[in-house]
């Protein structure tokens, strides 16, 4: 499961906490990475094992930019694996959510993964064993206060995952999702600090948040040859939060 030698991985949200963990894990396993983020990821490359990594600055709200950039990545190194990790998590009570923030949340969390998958499709098909992993959330499965826009976008992403899995399996491509609980990234720990965070941990049967390395390991499994029969699934990595 840990040998990705010769595989090319396109990873969005590469500069964030989960993205960094995924980049480090796949690079250590021999993969060649195309790091995609709105921030410049060039500095990450020197810290990753292996060679042939590249960094691409991309605004995921720009459909034309996605359509231009993804083929350039594919032409340069191929695309065997696409991980749609980038996401937006601004939360607010439903009655206070602005239309602009609602639309931006859907654009980043739902439209962008579809556009990335569509643009990467020819290269994933050429791979013969392409893999797509979409980063969803426990908020797609259960109601969480102030998560109307976020939860709707992530629930939609699971539905998209299933449709792509159905349509593209004939080309050797599997499409799966991961739905974590709160993950211990700098951004998440700001939003889930203090008593709010401690109560959230108490609500999780294992009593803690997820670690970025655990989510990276889940993605590696779904992208491995050993997981070739798993398609259209949502791997819930929530410490049991949603089983109640």
Automatic annotation (TrEMBL):
Presence of the UniProt keyword Ligase in the record: no
Q: Which InterPro entries match?
A: NAD(P)-bd_dom_sf, Sc_DH/Rdtase_CS, SDR_DHRS6-like, SDR_fam
- Keywords in UniProt for this one? Oxidoreductase
The answer to whether keyword Ribonucleoprotein applies is no
Give GO terms: molecular function aspect only.
Answer: oxidoreductase activity
Mind telling me which PROSITE patterns this protein's record contains?
ADH_SHORT (PS00061)
Q: Which domain of life is it from?
A: Bacteria
Protein family according to the UniProt entry: Belongs to the short-chain dehydrogenases/reductases (SDR) family.
| NCBIfam families on file | PRK06841.1
Q: Can you name this protein? A: D-threitol dehydrogenase
